[in-house]
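Hi V.,

Quick status before I head out on leave. The structure for the redesign project is tokenized and pasted below; the design run finished overnight.
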């Protein structure tokens, strides 16, 4: 099973996970055309995609879901689902039926957690034992506090149903991340309130402090990550 974050950020999110026989997309932030282009960069065809799962109905995740259903004629699934090797679970975010995903293939396990204000114990239980973890690292708290956003939006982002900060990710990595996780892909960085160097500076010491060999990748809006073997 292989995984690539095709796009992530405040504007558009889309993740590919697939095996030799079938591929799935998680979130529809990119247009079908742009998604096809990025799949092609990875040597994948759109004909390989058999279904799509949506984490929640905010625009940067669900904008093009209808177009995929119509143009690619694939099934699009929302909310809590359990379909063969893919299981979704609730996360803590201010949209109806916000979910994360667990994808299993043999002994391999990938977990995707995007928009969430915190990591609840039940989420941590779903995330445990992941070989590849895609996790939101939305903002640097201080950068958000002094940044240009209006006060109520800042409060929303910082709340338990908002978005995950670099510090929250670092805390999770320090307390919970297991050696089974060979690749940690950070996602959904805010362009206004974060920077790849800041999130690396927060998370790397936690990995090193635990003696973990986990590879750290920071995904972005403009190009897909490499295709990772889970
Ligand atoms: Zn959201
Ligand atoms: Zn989002």
């Amino acid at each position: 099973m292989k995984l690539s974050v095709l796009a992530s950020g405040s504007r558009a999110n889309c993740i590919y996970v697939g095996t030799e026989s079938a591929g799935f997309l998680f979130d529809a932030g990119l247009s079908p055309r742009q998604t096809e282009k990025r799949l092609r960069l990875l040597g994948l065809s759109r004909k390989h995609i058999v279904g799509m799962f949506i984490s929640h109905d905010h625009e940067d995740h669900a904008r093009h879901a209808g177009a995929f259903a119509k143009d690619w004629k694939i099934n699009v699934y929302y909310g809590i689902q359990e379909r063969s090797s893919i299981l979704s679970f609730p996360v803590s975010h201010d949209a109806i039926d916000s979910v994360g995903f667990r994808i299993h293939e043999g002994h391999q396990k990938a977990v995707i957690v995007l928009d969430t204000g915190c990591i609840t114990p039940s989420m941590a239980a779903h995330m445990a034992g992941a070989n590849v973890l895609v996790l939101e690292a939305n903002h640097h708290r201080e950068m958000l506090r002094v940044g240009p956003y209006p006060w109520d939006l800042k409060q929303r982002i910082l709340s338990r149903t908002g978005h995950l900060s670099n510090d929250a990710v670092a805390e999770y990595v320090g307390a919970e991340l297991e050696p089974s996780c060979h690749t940690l892909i950070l996602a959904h960085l805010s362009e206004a309130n974060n920077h790849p160097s800041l999130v690396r500076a927060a998370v790397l010491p936690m990995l090193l402090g635990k003696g973990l060999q986990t590879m750290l990748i920071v995904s972005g809006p403009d190009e897909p990550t490499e295709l990772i073997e889970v």
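Above is the designed sequence. The radius of gyration is 16 Å.

G. will cover questions while I'm gone.

Best,
W.
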